[in-house]
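Exercise (ungraded).
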Amino acid sequence: MAGAAGPGTGPGAAGGDGDDSLYPIAVLIDELRNEDVQLRLNSIKKLSTIALALGVERTRTELLPFLTDTIYDEDEVLLALAEQLGNFTGLVGGPDFAHCLLPPLESLATVEETVVRDKAVESLRQISQEHTPIALEAHFVPLVKRLASGDWFTSRTSACGLFSVCYPRASNAVKAEIRQHFRSLCSDDTPMVRRAAASKLGEFAKVLELDSVKSEIVPLFTNLASDEQDSVRLLAVEACVSIAQLLSQEDLEALVMPTLRQAAEDKSWRVRYMVADKFSELQKAVGPKITLNDLIPAFQNLLKDCEAEVRAAAAHKVKELCENLPPEGRETIIMNQILPFIKELVSDTNQHVKSALASVIMGLSTILGKENTIEHLLPLFLAQLKDECPEVRLNIISNLDCVNEVIGIRQLSQSLLPAIVELAEDAKWRVRLAIIEYMPLLAGQLGVQFFDEKLNSLCMAWLVDHVYAIREAATNNLMKLVKKFGTEWAQNTIVPKVLVMASDPNYLHRMTTLFCINALSEACGQEITTKQMLPIVLKMAGDQVANVRFNVAKSLQKIGPILDTDALQEEVKPVLQKLGQDEDVDVKYFAQEALSAVAQRLRKLDSPAKDGEEPSAPGADKNHFLRPGGPGEDTGKFVPLMSRHTESERLGWFLRRQ
Amino acid sequence: MSSSSPPVGAASAAISASEKVDGFTRKSVRKAQRQKRSQGSSQFRSQGSQAELHPLPQLKDATSNEQQELFCQKLQQCCILFDFMDSVSDLKSKEIKRATLNELVEYVSTNRGVIVESAYSDIVKMISANIFRTLPPSDNPDFDPEEDEPTLEASWPHIQLVYEFFLRFLESPDFQPSIAKRYIDQKFVQQLLELFDSEDPRERDFLKTVLHRIYGKFLGLRAFIRKQINNIFLRFIYETEHFNGVAELLEILGSIINGFALPLKAEHKQFLMKVLIPMHTAKGLALFHAQLAYCVVQFLEKDTTLTEPVIRGLLKFWPKTCSQKEVMFLGEIEEILDVIEPTQFKKIEEPLFKQISKCVSSSHFQVAERALYFWNNEYILSLIEENIDKILPIMFGSLYKISKEHWNPTIVALVYNVLKTLMEMNGKLFDDLTGSYKAERQREKKKELEREELWKKLEELKLKKALEKQNSAYNMHSILSNTSDE
């Protein structure tokens, strides 16, 4: 091996001798030039393979110049190219040659299409880290400067994203220049560039020295926050979060707060929306004192803003705002300064506002405690549970458990039960679904007797719902109930009702019986399954609807593991064999699937010695039959393979690093 | 506790009634409620309690020296805004303002010498106070301008009259741009342009005429207006993809381009290539394509040398999945071909006809049909005939193929006609191509195989390298030479 390395290592060797290299660059470049965009795209996506075939030398001298020249292409191809080049450092010969990648990326950073430009900037940021400090100043910083003073706005917007990556590693003189360039972009003539600068202002502030933040970033921030275009002003709000984190309380008060106050009352709703949307971040950034003095009043205004969009954004933040208040005095602040506004929002004219509030309002109960919740929040929950908009109702129901923890299920069910019963028949199926999912918890807390009285009939009614998702959820719900209340309860209350549906004229209801049996058999155990369920399933094998028949086959496969040899041999097998001759292809298919599973099961039962090992033996996993029902079954099967895979990958990476 | 219970009770009563209605009706009810929503509510933020208006004497009853003073008073009175969302409040004051605005419109359009220098400030102030406002959020975030009804401006009864007044003011023979430019400045125009995003088509229509007049009368603002429109378009294309007034702005630009002096400035060419052409990528192209195509053709009529870059630009942005847009592109290409010079045609015939050949074999019959209609155009036909040696080999393959395979009988019939026309243009070439068709197909297949082979080899090489890297610490050069020795 060492000997073979000799002749090839000379720099010109591969380039000079055409026969020596496997694939002449012309062929590869031909691929990149193909008329079909899709093929060009495929080639670009495999650019690393091409570079690998060419070797680092020819990649630098031939491939990269070619790529730099062919920048005029479909945006989709350019996007793939920009992405590839970000990971190319190794393929051009490592960090010493990383700067070779700058010319093509520079051109890509100037194209019109935003997606391409952003990707090029991302790759440039990545590559910047691979430059040595010297190379950074020799190659990267000049590129940033060129972009920052480009004629067309695209290059200037791209430049905005590159300042923060080169600033920390530049010398002081260069730092001053970089700041100067950033300053001029913040007051650029084109709003697109100002937007780009505003969106990177916070990021840039973080890498600057504190003095420069105060003397340079703050004035830029103030200017951008009072830009004539609201699209620029709203981005300044985002920057405010980062800047506020850097400053002391006094500096904050003097330098940032006047601007933030102004933003919270901006004439454009977009800016106010942004303040509402970033409220929690702002709150954390400015600290508790300013929050109490400034942000709470601002928040109150946002909660009663004239635009629903702003109110909704603020309503979303209610819980986070309250959570982040200092524990001391929190309750008083919420009760006196927040709750009155929330009460107003419960009867807002806009459904999005109400729904936003409903998604967080329940979270307040843990903060306010039991008594306040019962006295002040519960009436609001009840009002929202009866809201005309289903989304509002849904948001309340799906968060009931937070309240449950605070006031206990008794109290909750007494107040909420009438509303819940009403919602169980809601016209929107998603609302019904949310209620069903809440049932097992409710049942567990209320006990069997209460459940049978008030809720059992609801649970049965859902089985014949006209929406499949509800019937499916209802089936799973029954299984969970049986696990809670035990088999005896199941045998007395659930199973008879389910089995009656087997002779329903509607085939969907008949299938529901089968689905229920699938779900319940394991929880109910061998006796109930064999004595009560199996006969019904077998009887249904003669159903006139094919869907029912193949579901019979599936059910038999499903309940097989619970049955004993006799039942399998004497009852299940003949029926499956008959279904295996069915005229319908699907019935035939599923019957044969089930037959082979049953056959395997029987073989295992014949040699009980092995039976004990089965669950742990990896080979047994292939047999679905042996491990019924567990949803984790499939993932279990894949885990060893995947972990092995990642291990070898990690190994490869490790070796490459060496 | 007691404070919160009454609203709860009231809400539940309201719900039980609406709960009985089925889901569909409720949706339509909600939609109707939404459509009643007012725009422009943002402007009432800062206003305190409403001042009640008191009617002023009629202008026509005043003496001529009182008239000017009264005119200004009326203008100031009209600066007060009313909330039209609330249809019962301030009814009397609203009516007074409406009547006053009507009177003002009539006053400036029928009388001469009433627009004196001192009035400009009040006039522009009144206009600004009424029309400049932050547009409210769109009611319907997935607003489809082709399908949905636009949200109409609630305060239209007043705003319409203000626009009317603005137009009469601009068009009055007494109007002097030299005085007005103190008030109608860059900031004013900037705000005016932002209003083009209004969802109300009536408002955009007024704005279009207003901006057109301003562009015509204020020479100093022209470059600024073009630049701002430029920015709006770039933002529309690359940032938001949403702006309601694109068609209106393009319509104004159409007339602006028409008046460009020759030779075209670099700035204008850049606008064509970097703004108008990329605009074809917009999702809602259908809403403004007619105006856009008009602008493009205007440019080409001014300067034919732009034809090649324009057509190459369109080919670059040719829609890949949206058939509706493809039909629009084909329409635009035909408009361009209608005015193309034969020398320019030669420059782009190859890439263009490669695209047309793809369109002709589109499985969407409207695309295929639109492309095949080119052969009904006398001028295009003559261009094809002149260059038949180039075009026939490009077109032949797909035409031949669809004549046998296309699912739509109309397309097949059209293709037969096209083939016949082409055959008549150069029978010998046609025969040659028919003869070599099969061999051509086979060569393509072989090339395809070669490509697959190439990539397979490259993949193997990559795998081998990865393996060797793991096995030894050799650098890339040694590996390359090692594998290539084999």
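Further reading is listed at the end of the chapter. For now, observe: The longest helix of chain B spans residues 427-471. Chain B is about 70% helix and 0% strand.
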